[in-house]
Amino acid sequence: MATYKSEEVPLKASAESVFGRLSNFESLKNLLAQVPEDQIPADKKEMFDSIRLTEDSIELPGGPVGSIRLRVVERKAPSRITLKGEGTPVPLQLQLDIHPIDEAACRAQAKVDIEIPAMLRPMISGPMQKMTEQFATVLRSIPF
Which CATH number fits domain 2-141: 3.30.470.20, 3.40.50.620, 3.30.530.20, 3.30.70.270? Predict the structure, then answer.
């Protein structure tokens, strides 16, 4: 199993607010609906429109591998949300750790555990680390 971690990103919200917003994906539907059309590249619009959210899961179009579903398998308020890949080509787990700083701020870190064959790690490690960092960057743009 290979592990990729993002940097810890500071968020201007309490750990409870961040956990509350991110532990139920349905609460993110309004956020997706508010993304301006001109902010979505034309070649990604269909993919963006194909994102499906439920309370416990997020389904993302996965290109040639088909859709990728991540389902919540652990909620530990207010410090951890863990998702597990369903129907993914390889076992995958995404964990978001939330660390309180004070009543109005916290830090968050994304961690991805994925089972990659040793021969493929050199090719996959860079893109996986970049994806993990991008996930953390997206957290900064979410209004909590």
Answer: 3.30.530.20
CB 35, CB 49: distance < 8 Å: no
The pTM of the full predicted model, rounded to 2 decimals, is 0.86
The DSSP element (H or E) to which 73 belongs, if any, is strand 68-76
The C-alpha atoms of residue 137 and residue 3 are separated, in whole angstroms, by 18
Q: Give the pLDDT confidence of 30-65 residue by residue, as tens digits.
A: 888 888 888 888 877 888 888 899 999 999 887 666
Nearest CA to 84 among 68, 75, 96, 72?
72
Q: CA 51, CA 13: separation in Å to the nearest integer?
A: 26
